Amino acid sequence: MKTSRRGFLTLTAWGMAAAAAPGMLRAQNLPRPPQPARLRLSCQEGVAPGKTLTEKLDFLEAHGFEGIEPWGGGLPRRVEEFQKALRGRKIRVSAVCAGFEGVLISEDEQVRQNAVRSIREILTAAGALGAVGMIVVPAFNGQTKLGHVEARELLVRLLPELGEHAHKAGTRILLEPLNRREAWFLRQLADAAAICRDVNHPGVAMMGDFWHMTWEEPSDFAAFVAAGPYLQHVHIASRKERKMPGEDPGDDYTDGFRGLKFIGYQNFISFECGSKGNPHQSIPAAVRLLREQWQAA
């Protein structure tokens, strides 16, 4: 079909008009989320102030947190401690942060098997505590000599067994993309989602971290939309120095919050960060900021 110059210009003008009215297109073309998203705040155990687990839980509950995120190392020996401390509270374990031995995509089989064994043990504890999942980084920089293709093929081969163990325990593996200063393998949420899709197991999912995303994602909104239903946990920190949200000038999470709302995100956003000031003051201030930006998103 031939198009005249005038016809071409007309089509171009319509295209420019559509680009100038994204709100209209969004209202017409973008689907509603499966359910309204929720802002459910969590905090890593080591970030929350307090000398004991009970003191930490008291502080978090007093400031509206719904979750606590323990370190995975040694957690199998602490299951009863957490169960007793959480009894009668509204707060729960959100996710379990790593803490395993070995390297999942090491070129050394002994190192890999050590990782598989250790991850299975922590997954069992995570399931007993009702955690959404256990965070797993396949390898940090310098921990594997495998190339990207070999490492990905190995990971996809190993994950179904671990995913099955997680599923039977009532939890999930949560793959975490990092920034390139920490890991060149697995840096973007879309890549983690593609791995989850290839594995295709209910016990294998992923997470996102606003701080890592600062360096690796062109758009927080697009990253979370690409992750879609595979996204089951989120970390948050200030955008530049990994301190409390709001402690870096211009800290803004609204673009990402729009993405979470778009996919109807249901699980936790957990503080993984330091603090420039006294956490008794900086944590409540961060909570206020996040609630304001969630409302604005």
Structure description:
With 297 residues, this protein is of the alpha/beta class. Helix content is 46%, strand content 11%. It has eleven helices and nine strands. It has a nine-stranded parallel sheet with strand order 3-2-1-9-8-7-6-5-4. α7 runs parallel beside α9. The N and C termini lie far apart (44 Å). The N terminus is likely disordered.
The succession of helices and strands, N to C, reads HHEHEHEEHEHEHEHHEHEH
In what order do the strands lie side by side in the largest sheet? 3-2-1-9-8-7-6-5-4
Distance between the termini: 44 Å
Give the overall silhouette: globular
Radius of gyration, in angstroms, nearest whole number: 21 Å
Overall mean confidence score, pLDDT: 92
Helix content: 40-55%
Number of strands: 9
The proportion of strand residues reads: 5-15%
Uncertain spans, ≥5 residues at pLDDT below 50? 1-28
Total number of helical segments?
11
Structural class estimated from helices and strands: alpha/beta
Q: Largest sheet, described in full?
A: 9 strands, parallel
